[in-house]
Amino acid sequence: MATTQKRALVLFAHGARDPRWAEPFKRLQGIVQAQSPELTVSLAFLELMSPRLPELVPELVSAGVDDVTIVPVFLGQGGHVLRDLPLIIDELKTTYPALSFKIAGAVGEDPQVLNAMATYCVSAIA
């Protein structure tokens, strides 16, 4: 008998003191959810905003999620993505050993994202 995994996609952002900072990330979450209605699409933060990733994961587990892909919504693979995020995931794996985690590269490292940003930048002078 085949088992069906319930998958979640977590958009992982830094966080800021000003709540307005999160608005584009919330819009991104809505767009991704609309494009992939079969997924649970959530937003989590490293610091300064809620939910932080360790706060979100128990909610996902309660909802029956068993496969989590985390997309760092950062421009580059800096210390938060290369050091802080793996440490958080290691702790979560200890607490939730049955949960599968995958970490994607930072969104800003993707050539399509960079090309979209370049197009936007050039359009700013028009």
Automatic annotation (TrEMBL):
InterPro entries: CbiX-like, Sirohydro_Cobaltochel/CbiX
Pfam families linked to this entry: CbiX
Coiled coil, from the record: none
Keywords: Lyase, Metal-binding
Keyword set includes Lyase: yes
Domain of life from the UniProt record: Bacteria
Protein's UniProt name: Sirohydrochlorin chelatase
Organism: Herminiimonas aquatilis
Lineage: Bacteria, Pseudomonadati, Pseudomonadota, Betaproteobacteria, Burkholderiales
